[in-house]
Design the sequence.
């Protein structure tokens, strides 16, 4: 079954009450309020859904899910939209998707983020050799304040979360 059809099935009981929108702390910054986004999903307005930045601004606070009178998994629906956008490698979301993937790769390898590696992974993923230059002044300021540490490589296997990440991937595939 298509991912968007699954999402539509998940949201079909939505009564368009607007509780999700009223509960959302990020609603003021969204171009479509959550209630309208759900309506677009139900109406198969796929292009409009992915032209929106609403689902990217979801902070996964679960207020919409907790307060939904129908008990719909709205936070999970937002996460699915993010996953679909990442899977399709949509240009509008490429920066944030690659940022997130680079961050998580560093965490997977070391059990925490290692800033130097994370920045390197992100710049490589963006495939723009001039991109690091746009961050140079910020990087210098952070280094002056000892906010960024460039560390020696960790011992192999220390902090490695491969097994945990594989299990999460298996669970996500089953959904």
Sequence:
């Amino acid at each position: 079954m298509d991912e968007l059809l699954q999402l539509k099935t998940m949201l079909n009981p939505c009564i368009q009450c607007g509780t999700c929108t009223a509960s959302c702390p990020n609603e003021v910054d969204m171009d479509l309020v959550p209630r309208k986004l759900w309506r677009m999903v139900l109406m198969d307005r796929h292009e409009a859904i992915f032209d929106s930045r609403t689902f990217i601004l979801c902070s996964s606070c679960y207020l919409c899910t907790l307060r939904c009178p129908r008990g719909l998994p709205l936070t999970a629906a937002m996460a699915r939209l993010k996953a679909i956008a990442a899977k399709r490698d949509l240009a509008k979301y490429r920066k944030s998707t690659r940022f997130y993937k680079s961050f998580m790769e560093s965490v997977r390898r070391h059990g925490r983020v290692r800033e130097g590696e994370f920045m390197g992974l992100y710049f490589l993923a963006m495939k723009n050799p001039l991109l690091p230059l746009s961050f140079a002044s910020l990087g210098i300021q952070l280094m002056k304040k000892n906010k960024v540490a460039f560390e020696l490589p960790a011992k192999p296997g220390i902090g490695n979360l491969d097994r945990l990440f594989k299990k999460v991937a298996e669970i996500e595939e089953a959904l």
In short: Residues 93-174 form one domain.
